[in-house]
Amino acid sequence: MAIIPEDKDWTWVLERSCPECGFSAATATPATAATTIPALLPRWQMALRRANAEERPDPGTWSVLEYGAHVRDVFDVFAARLDLMLNEDNPTFANWDQDQAALDGDYSALDPEDVSKELVHNGLDAADAFGAVPENQWQRRGLRSNGSEFTVVTLTGYFLHDLVHHLHDVDA
User: Which of 42, 47, 24 is nearest to 172 (CA)?
Assistant: First the structure.
């Protein structure tokens, strides 16, 4: 069975805590991202070291490896979106199809150790990028391709939720 493409609009996590993972975006800022991301990376490293990291728990759910590769790429996607918001007025983000990215990147065939190293590298780069945003730029705006509007602060909360939620997904 193939993975069922994700079609949920998760922007509601900006309004209330996630009942699945418990994350609350209400306190997220670029400054907290700079410390939260590095604190989460060891949990990803441990998960990717599991003996069964390449195995899907069921045919319709990503393996730890696939989730790790996704998060590795999420760091780059959100750092790029942040850069757009800081350097352009009201940019619209290109659509990123995470399911197509998984197929194109052949996530299931990757080496967990390589993904772990890349995830840490990308995560630290993203932490640096978010941490470097001066507070007077936190209200800069950007639009997702579906029209959802973000500020730098709400983008940060949305982004951090993704990282925490996927740790919950892989029980790490």
Answer: 47
Written as one letter, the residue type at 133 is V
Domains and CATH numbers, the chain: 25-169 (1.20.120.450)
Identity of residue 153: V
Q: Quick one: DSSP state of residue 92? A: B
Q: Phi/psi zone of residue 171: left (φ > 0), alpha (ψ -120 to 50 degrees), beta? A: left
For residue 61, what are its two tokens? 């759910």
Mean pLDDT of 31-43: 98
How many other CB atoms are found less than 10 A from the CB of residue 80? Answer: 15
Residue 7 has pLDDT above 90, yes or no: no
What is the pLDDT averaged over residues 3-12?
66
What is the pTM for the complete model shown? 0.93
Is the Cα torsion angle 82, 126, 161, 106 positive or negative in sign? positive
